[in-house]
Structure formats: structure tokens, C-alpha cells
Design goal:
82% helix, transmembrane helix
Length: 93
């Protein structure tokens, strides 16, 4: 896993999707904002940590660009999903 960080991030994404489905199935009382933040920022956080501790690897430069891409996409997704969630709650009232 340490030799190929892309594989680690893909596996973590699959684990995150399964965890969110399981928490939804068990009706775990995590707040809506906390759930959205967890879904949007778990993978970028792990990616940044992996990037810091990667050391010398042939994937270091490509993974650094991939990490920047994931962080930017997660910020945009969080803003868009927060806006759409607030818009949906406004239409409910």
C-alpha cells in the first residue's frame, strides 16, 4: 500500500461509501452537517497525511497533484452540497 498511494485512496473511498451506507442503515444519529463534512473531507485528509508521510516514492509528484485535485474537488462539493441542502430545507418551510 505504501508503494502505491492511489490504491490506498481508492480503497479508502470504497470503505467510506460502505461506512456511510452502514451508518444510514443503522440510523446512526450523526448530525447532517457532520455527516456531510465526514463524506467530503475524510478522503482528502487521509490523502494529505499520506502525502506528508510518503517519503521517497516514484508516485510522489503525481500523488501530490492528485492530493491538490482531491482537496479542491472536496471543497467545491462541500460548498455545493451545503448550498443545495440549505435550499432544500428552505423549500420545506
Amino acid at each position: 500500500m505504501k508503494n502505491n498511494p492511489f490504491l490506498t485512496v481508492i480503497l479508502l473511498f470504497c470503505i467510506q461509501v460502505l461506512l456511510v451506507k452502514y451508518l444510514d442503515y443503522t440510523d446512526f444519529g450523526m448530525g447532517e452537517g457532520v455527516s456531510l463534512a465526514f463524506m467530503c473531507f475524510f478522503i482528502p485528509t487521509v490523502s494529505v497525511v499520506l502525502n506528508l508521510f510518503l517519503g521517497e516514492s516514484r508516485y510522489k509528484k503525481a500523488f501530490r497533484y492528485f492530493t491538490f485535485f482531491i482537496v479542491i474537488i472536496s471543497l467545491l462539493a462541500f460548498v455545493a452540497l451545503s448550498y443545495l441542502g440549505a435550499l432544500g430545507r428552505a423549500y420545506q418551510h
